[in-house]
Automatic annotation (TrEMBL):
It comes from Streptomyces crystallinus. This is Transcriptional regulator. It comes from the Bacteria. PANTHER family: NADR_TTD14 AAA DOMAIN-CONTAINING PROTEIN, TRIFUNCTIONAL NAD BIOSYNTHESIS/REGULATOR PROTEIN NADR. InterPro entries: NAD_biosynth-regulator, Rossmann-like_a/b/a_fold.
Length: 249
């Protein structure tokens, strides 16, 4: 298999599993692309985690030195020239995208709408991490309330989670298995976050990364409303998967 997998989605994984069922050995070549926003090594790591039985490489030379190539699996009807380049048979799988109506371009355009087509490694990378910075309960209470507010929206947001401070392992698990946004109660500004909600005086200093929003409002309800507005605005902006210069991958 050859592809950019930017990012990999359910259609890609179906193609890999189909090839694994029909082959003695499968090599997945993860290609680089001009102006790529997700490094090839990251995409290769995602594919290797989801498909430990496959040999995942980032070099055509690695494919050619790995033994003969009998078949090239694609989901494109025009995959014949690629197969001929390897001196192999072309096996086309679900070219109509009937089983999994998704594409990498669709994921890049609307990650939230395609969330159910993504595996855990990609979800963990994409999840927008929002930290409420302040001393307890100024951080913990809003983080929990924000998660509950988004859960009530239903759909993909029903799995929204929040995590207490200083629990990195729990945070990573929640990011990989939850909704597109994760709320974190933060006592310090050391960890990397996409958005910081400043809930009170910051004795430990301000974060030097990510966007910062000072929460202001009349009482807890007003501050929660301000926080939801800030998060919604942030989620409505770019997710870092815009089309690269020169066109589609």
């Amino acid at each position: 298999m050859v592809g950019t997998f930017c990012p990999p989605h359910a259609g890609h994984h179906h193609l890999v599993r189909t090839a694994e069922d029909r082959c003695e050995a499968l090599t997945v070549l993860v290609c680089t692309a001009a102006g790529e926003l997700v490094a090839a090594r990251t995409r290769a790591r995602w594919m290797a985690e989801v498909h430990p039985r496959a040999r995942v490489v980032r070099s055509v030379r690695s494919v050619r030195t790995g033994g003969r190539v009998d078949a090239v699996f694609t989901s494109e009807r025009h995959g014949d020239p690629l197969a001929r380049a390897f001196g192999a048979e072309h096996v086309c799988v679900d070219a109509e995208r009937a089983l999994f109506p998704v594409s990498a371009a669709a994921v890049r355009k609307d990650p939230v709408g395609c969330w159910d087509f993504l595996e855990q490694p990609v979800r963990g990378w994409l999840t927008r991490r929002v930290a409420v910075l302040g001393a307890d309960p100024a951080a913990t209470t809003p983080a929990r309330a924000l998660a509950e507010r988004y859960q009530r929206r239903g759909g993909v947001w029903a799995g929204t989670r929040w995590v207490p401070r200083c629990e990195r392992a729990r945070e990573e698990h929640a990011a990989r298995t939850g909704a597109p946004v994760l709320f974190c109660a933060a006592g310090t500004a050391r960890a990397a976050r996409h958005l910081w909600l400043l809930a009170g005086p910051q004795e430990g200093g301000l974060p030097d990364h990510g966007r910062k929003v000072v929460l202001r409002g009349a009482g807890p309800a007003g501050m929660l409303g301000a926080a939801v507005d800030a998060v919604d605005t942030f989620l409505g902006e770019s997710w870092g998967l815009d089309e690269p210069p020169g066109g589609r991958w």
